[in-house]
Design brief:
The chain contains nine helices and 20 strands. By secondary structure, it is α+β, with helices and mostly antiparallel strands. The radius of gyration is 22 Å and the shape is globular.
């Protein structure tokens, strides 16, 4: 049977930890979870048929990614790949740049030059016109790896790293999520079939982490705050939005309300507008408060802005008075007031990028990017600095 679009992608079920050895039939196959747009790529079976790029929800995106369509000449006919669309900007994976690509039609060609896309393939649903849905994942992975070798595929086609070694999987979860672009890992059953639209044998695990943030505003009222707007000072002393909480329960709201003071007109967020959530056109109507209360926020890592807000919050559009606004994609789930921490001590985490990751990817090659993540992680684990040879390899 030949598969034809739209095809529902198989979905992953969220869980808190990587399963124990022997917990999944056929062993575990673990992939890093890239923070991109899920997509299926279809190459034509016959002359005159188009290359198609389908989103998770069935929309067709090929007109917005002409660079991938052009590069599909590297691929054989009758192929369907499952993977993540990603974009590298300034040597790092950028969800904001990816969103620009995905929403631009008139500027698609110019953006393809400015912000070239990559397709990170982690599964193959059809090869040579033969569907593979009933094949176990272990065999589909072998077919996918052989495809990259036999056709000598080069960027923008990238083979997603994969491992059956649980030690490596934990390293990816603990170390790779320290940098923009990796949300966590996806754990799959080696004997699992590909079930379109279903969940059950794939599990996504995000790294849990905590950090402190400053309460800069609330929705609701000072007496009954509903949602907290959280910020951190950047290296220039500006308070930047890094996210918001889920709605507070009554006991937590009462505890927070006792500590809040209405802000004066000199609050750094005066006049700034914040969207209600990621991609929303609705704006919040917050009550600004004196940025003196510090909260401990806990949640999941969130990819491109994880260093800016390690508690599952991303503010891709900035959020200070100079850039005019911010967007929040995820929310902090637990907030604990820290009375012993002074707000001025809560610095923005952008400076940690320089201290923890001194090198950058020197070319838009995700294979090299993945190698860099591995060598940096191993160096950090052993407490050493990279050798000149390792740095050279990182830079192509």
């Amino acid at each position: 049977m030949v598969l034809r679009p739209p095809v529902e992608p198989m979905l992953a079920q969220a869980r808190e930890t990587i399963p124990l050895p022997g917990a999944m039939p056929g062993g575990m196959i673990v992939d890093p979870k890239f923070d991109g747009f899920r997509a299926l790529l279809f190459t034509p079976l016959e002359d005159g048929q188009p290359v198609l790029l389908q989103s998770r929800r069935g929309a067709m995106y090929q007109a917005r990614f002409p660079d991938l369509v052009a590069a599909a000449g590297q691929l054989p006919r009758g192929l369907i790949l499952d993977g993540e669309l990603t974009v590298l900007e300034h040597g790092q994976l950028s969800f904001t740049a990816l969103q620009r690509r995905a929403t631009a039609v008139r500027q698609a060609k110019s953006l393809a030059v400015e912000l070239p896309a990559h397709f990170v393939a982690f599964d193959v649903l059809q090869a040579d016109g033969q569907e593979l849905l009933k094949e176990p994942l272990s065999r589909r992975r072998r077919i996918l790896e052989a495809l990259f070798v036999e056709h000598r595929l080069t960027p923008p086609w990238t083979l997603c790293p994969s491992t059956t070694d649980l030690a490596v999987a934990h390293e990816w979860l603990d170390e790779w999520t320290d940098v923009p672009g990796i949300e966590g890992v996806v754990v799959k059953s080696g004997t699992g079939r590909y079930r379109p639209g279903a969940r059950g044998s794939w599990y996504k695990v995000r790294r849990r982490s905590t950090t402190e943030a400053i309460i800069g505003g609330v929705t609701g009222s000072l007496r009954r705050p509903q949602v907290l707007l959280l910020g951190r000072f950047d290296i220039n002393g500006r308070l930047r939005l890094v996210g918001k909480t889920i709605p507070l329960r009554s006991p937590a709201a009462a505890e927070v309300a006792d500590q809040l003071t209405a802000a004066g007109s000199d609050h750094p967020w005066t006049g700034v507008r914040f969207t209600a959530h990621w991609g929303s056109r609705d704006f919040l109507d917050p009550v600004l408060v004196e940025p003196r209360c510090v909260a401990d926020q806990r949640g999941h890592s969130a990819g491109p802005r994880r260093l800016a807000s390690p508690a599952a919050i991303r503010a891709d559009a900035g959020g200070d008075a100079s850039d005019g606004g911010g967007e929040v994609r995820r929310t902090a789930r637990i907030v604990i007031l820290l009375e012993e921490v002074n707000a001025t001590a809560v610095s923005h985490l952008f400076d940690l990028v320089a201290s923890n990751w001194t090198s950058v990817v020197c070319e838009p090659d995700l294979a090299a990017w993945a190698w860099q993540r591995h060598t940096h992680a191993m160096a950090r684990r052993s407490g050493r600095t990279l050798t000149a040879a390792e740095e050279a390899k990182n830079c192509g």
